[in-house]
Amino acid sequence: MALIPIILIPDPVLRKVAAPVTEITDGTRQLLDDMAETMYDAPGIGLAAPQVNISERVIVMDCGRDEAPDLYKMINPEIVARSDDRSVLEEGCLSIPHQTAEVERPASVDVRYLDTDGREQMLQCEGLLAACVQHEIDHLDGVLFIDHLSRLKRDMIVRKALKELRQSATSPGRG
Ligand code: GNR
Ligand code: NI
To answer: How far apart are CA 117 and CA 136, in angstroms?
Structure first.
């Protein structure tokens, strides 16, 4: 197990469309283990491979509580159904530190994916898990949560995030 550094905006890897996994190997399973460890360490409730500089379609998620962890490792996840009703949830992203915004998305989605044994699985998601899985699959398509906001809000968040990152880069010990 190992922690992997998390990539921040404006790194172009976050804007690439990630490639499907064609063969599930021990390397794939190791990557998912390392991503889970990195997500818990951050801490976050989800992490997509492009956020650790790997442009492949794999994600991890855990929207459980500390006392009841609920880890999902998904390979080539795909949304196969979306509800018409939508819900609004406060989102953040480990690649855009310290910024959050309300994002509106379908309230529930059905996701099809391969597990680490290559078996096809289906998962019905609602609530926080639905928001999280849509956020993670967006990452695989080079989409960030700020892309769901008005241009004004998006520009404001990007400007604040970049300013903070610049300041923490030039004043060691303060970020
Ligand atoms: O830790 C995270 N919290 C979160 C909250 C609401 C909706 C989505 C998320 S995912 C985010 C971690 C992250 O950046 N995943 O890509
Ligand atoms: Ni994110």
So the answer is: 21
Structural domains for the chain: 12-170 (3.90.45.10)
Report whether residue 61 contacts ligand 1, using a CB cutoff of 6 Å: no
**DSSP letter (8 states) at residue 56:** B
Q: Is 136 an annotated catalytic residue? A: yes
Neighbours of ion ligand 2 (CB under 5 A): 93
For ligand 1, atom 11, name the residue with the nearest CA.
Answer: 93
Cα–Cα distance for residue pair 77/122, rounded to 1 Å = 9
List average pLDDT for each run of 10 residues in the chain, which is 175 residues long.
Answer: 96 98 98 98 98 98 91 98 98 97 98 98 98 99 98 98 92 63
Query: Probe ligand 1: pick from 91, 144, 157, max atoms within 8 Å of CB?
Result: 91
